[in-house]
Structure formats: C-alpha cells, structure tokens
Known about the structure:
Order of helices and strands of chain B: HHEEHHHHHHHHHHHHHHHHHH
Number of helices of chain A: 8
Largest sheet of chain B: 2 strands, antiparallel
Oligomer: heterodimer
Structural class of chain B: mainly alpha
Shape of chain B: globular
Strand content of chain A: under 5%
Amino acid sequence: MFISVVLLHLIKRGSTAIVLYVFQSALIALLLILSSFDHPTFLLGCAIVATIAVKMIAAPYFFSSLLKKHNLKFLVGNYFNVPVTLLIITALAALTRAHIFKDLALLGVLHADFLLIPFATILVSLFLIINGRGALSQMLGILSLENGIVSFALFAGLEQNPGFQLGITINIFIWIMMVSVLASLIFKHHGSLDVSAMKRLIE
Amino acid sequence: MALALLLSIPIISILLSLLVSRKTLYLECIAVCAGFFELAATIVIIWQVIHNNHFSFTHLFSVDALGALVLGITSVVGFFALIYSVGYLRVEMEKGIVDFKKVKLYFLLVHTFLGAMITAIVSANPIGMWIAIEATTLSTTFLVSFYNKSSAIEAAWKYLVINSIGLLLGFFGMILYFTSLPQESISGFVDWNVLILHAPLLNPVIAKIAFIFVLIGFGTKVGLAPMHTWLPDAHGKAPAPVSALLSGTLLNIAFLAILRFKVITDTVLDNWYTQNLLIFFGLLSIVIAVFIIFVQQKYKRLLAYSSIEHMGIIALGFGFGGLGSFAALLHMIYHSCAKSLMFFASGNIFLKFGKSKTTSIKGMIHVMPITTIFFFIGFLTLVGVPPFGIFMTEFMILMSGISNHLVISLVVLILLVLTFVGFLRHTVGMVFGKQDESVQLGEFNWLTLMPLAGVSCILIVLSLYLFPELQILAQRAVLYIN
C-alpha cells in the first residue's frame, strides 16, 4: 500500500494511477476478508461487499469514464520534480519513526512497526494531494488517504467495528460520484484538469 | 416522536420536492412547511431536554443540553433561510438568473443539507456524526457551485477537497479514541457515553495526538485558521441563503464535534491541553481575519472573514473555560443570528446592485432603507456594540481570560477594536454616499424582508433578555464541557 502511494507520485499515465488505486483497495478488501475468517459477522460481510463494489468497481469506472470523456491520457504533473518528491517522501516516512509517534506504534495488534506503514501511507497521501497539480491526482490522493486510515484502523484492531468500513465506504461512493461531476465541470470551464490554472479566486 | 419527526421531515421534503414537476409554488410551500415543522419539533425536543435533561430516540439518536442549543440555532436559522430562499429565488427567477430546474435542485440540496446537519447534531454515535458532517459537505458542494460560473466551480472544488481532507484527518483522530475500547465494546454500538466511560484507559499520548487530528480535522469545517482558506470562497460564491446556513449553522455543528472530543480528552489529560490548543487556534483565527477584514473588497467575503473571527472568539472562550465557555455558547447563538441576518441582507444588496464589491455599493439607505436598517442591526451586533448580545459575550470572554491569559486578552481587545474600525469603514461606505442613478429604488418582495425582521427580533430580544430556559441549557452544556 505504501509503495502504491509512492508510485502514484511518480507515474504519468492516468490509467496506471487508477490501476494503482484499485490495487490499494484490493489490499484493503483482502485484509477485511482475512479478518472475517476470525470474526465472521453479517456487517463485516456487508463492509467487504461495499468495499469491493465501491473501491474496486465504481471508483475505477467513474475515473476511467472521466479520462475517456475528456480524452485524457496523462496526469497533469506535480509541483515538485521527482528527486525532491522522493526526498520529501523519505522524510515523511522517517517522520513516522519520530519519538512523538512512538506510542502510536504500540497500538498495533500484530507487530508495532506494522502500524507505522499505514501511518506513513497517510502522510504520503497527504503529500500527494498537496503535490498534485491535477484534479485526478488530488482525488486519488484523498482516496489513498482514506485507504491509509482504514488500513490503520485494521492494524489497530478496530476491524470488528464494521460501522467504520460501511460508513466510510458509502460516503466514498457518493464522494466519487460528486467529484467526477465536479471534475467534468472544471474541464468544461478551464479546458484541463490542472487545478493550478484555477486562479479566479486569488485575491 | 418529536425526534423521529425532526429526522423524517427533510426526507419527506426531498421526496415531495422530487414529485413536483412544474410549479415552483409547490416547492416553496414544501420548503416553508418543512422549516416550520422542523422548528416546531425542535421546540418540543428542547422543552423535553430542559425538563428531563436528555432526549433519546432509539439508541442511535439523543440530544443533551449542548446538542439542544445547537439544534435550536440550526432550526431557527434553517426556518428563516428557507423562507428567505423562497423570496430570493423568486427575484432570481424574475431576472432570468435561474429556472425551475435550478430552483428544484436548490431546494433538494438544501433539504439534504438541513437533514444532514440535524442528523449530525442528534447522532449519539461519533461515526454517525462524522458521516452526517461529511454529508453536509457533499450536499453543499453543488450549492456552492450553484451558478455554474468558473469562480463558483473553483470555490466548490476548493471546498470539497479541503473539507474532505479535513474530515478524513478528523476521522483518523476519531479512530484513535476508539483504541481505548475493549474488544467487546468495539464490536458493539459505540456512543459518546461509551467513549467517555472508557476514556481513562486511553494512552495520554494517543489522546493528545487524537485531539490534534480532531481539532485540525473538524477545525477545517469550523473555519479555524490556518485551515480556513475554503470558507471565504465558498461563502462568497454560494447563494446568499446558503451562505447564511453555512455560516450560521454548519460552523457550530463542526464545533459541537470538537467539543464532544474535548470532553473525552479532558477525561484523560488535564483541561490545559485542549484549552491551550483552542486558545492558539482561536487567537490565530482572530488575527488573520481582522487584518483581512480591513482590506477586504467584497462584502460577502467580508462577512465570511467575520465568521472566521467569531469562530476564533468562540474557540478562545472555550479555551479560557468557566465563564468563557458559558459566554462562548451564547456567542454562538448571537453570531448565528447576526450572521444569517447579514447574509440575508447581502442577498438583497446583490439582487439590487448586482455587484459584489463594497466600493461599488453606495447610498444603500436611499435605495433600500428597510434592508439597510436590518443590515445595520447585524453590523452593530457583529462588531460588539452594546446593548447587543455579542458585546456582553465578548466582555465575558475577555474577563474570564484576563486572570490567566492577560496578554492574550489585551491583544484580543485591540483586535476587536480594529475589527470595529475595519467593518465600520466598509459599512459607512456602503450605506451612505450618492447612489448610482441606474439603480431602481425600493425593496423586493416581502419574503426577502420578513426573515430579516424575524432574525432581528430574536437578536434584539435575546440581547435584552436571556430566557431562563436558555440559561439552564447553557449552564448544563457548560457543566458537560468543563
């Protein structure tokens, strides 16, 4: 999951970015399925179905339609170049090892260090949203951030509260639909998905 | 029963509005009736909370004193915003700015927005509250981009992205609180009381990290600096009644979430931790807002920055604690009324002058005298002129801070004086002077004035006389928070 979000910073093709997101979501679904073997509940089953339906089917469908509709092959690009981006990602990953986050690692049910990976995913996803100049990068950054948080909850032993999964997945479904419409409107008005070109509100 | 009714009214309104295919009048009737019944149900709920301390509907929804206060504000502002929407959209339809389809979309989204806000307040479950607050973002995004202009779409994108990130960070903070729960509690229904009950088991360092994430996350929605950047754009671009709802109700609801997590954090740590953070973000918000108010060129953005300033004052009040918390709660009420009044008035101004810059508006007193009077009442309240309520609450907040935070209190006092000067400069320029000859004199329909009169009456009455019931609610809420 961490590797996929790092790759999201580096890749250029929109379709590859969507595949990476699907891969990330598949990992979440897999974690939920593994958890359901230990504690099978009806709600957890619903959460798994919702995760697969929303993140692995609906999200790629909406994003692919967006790319096809506007004939977009490549992502807009980042504010920072590749070396600087990698440097910042390394710094963010190292930050998770900082003393202030030591207690956070102790929440892990399997191994303390496991929990730091989703935490690093959260930080790097946040950076993806900031670094991405394109609307699609920002959208995928937010979804990746959400995946990071969900995986953190799973590694912290909170998978038994399917309310988390169900609630957030339903929200994400509506969010994806809305953001796709809004991205289309941005394209219609600005001729690209480059959000750095939106400067009408700058005072 | 009342709570079930309150929750079902927005759903019924949405379904009924969907059935309307031609006549705008039906949409308007549904909206006004929905606002009225929501207000009536809220009054019943508040009455019950005053007498029984608590009001529940199944284990999913409950209202305490703090929730009742925020619910009351939401229903009152919601009711007047719906009436104002009718008048406002009628004028826009006459001018050919919107058509029936747009009006229908508007009311569908506003009912969804109100429904989400009500659900967020009455949800007994933190996850339910989070989902409902997220739903408010989703329902208002297309209200911000309602006019489909480039700048409005830009504002909507900014609003959606910043708030989504904020709420996800808030969600992360929330799940950290859940780590205190034993496994058998996690799988069950986790309400606020369960979280408070298990809070002593929470690792203090985790509690600190969790509250920072919650404060940054929900603070984004509140509009606390430096996460406030979406607010002036969204409030500036949305239709005036939506801006009134965003500023008068939504900000309080996000604050409610922060306060609920503050209570849990204070169980683990001393109050100083959450209070110092609130003071820091509160002061920062006031500083940033005050200086931008001085140089702001657009009146709706001016009001948006004023919201940031007032959220900062409220945060400061809760940060000071004690009397400050009591004053902050009352400040919420006065600010919501005054800000919705100002946004309604700004809607009338925009409809009349068709311009958004303060320097383009001259001679309001001659062009639309009734709106101007209400605008002035709102202005005097917002800048804290006596005898209006905000003067009293700001005074109480500063008094409560003077003993432990003398320097901060003095700095805030100076900033409040600066706000007064900055706001006055803009207001005088708009109200007086020679109006443009091309502007037609007179007001619009009575529906664009009645909500202003209604909110002004509430504001004046509450400024002069604080009902004992309101005092009871505020005192109980303060007990809960502190």
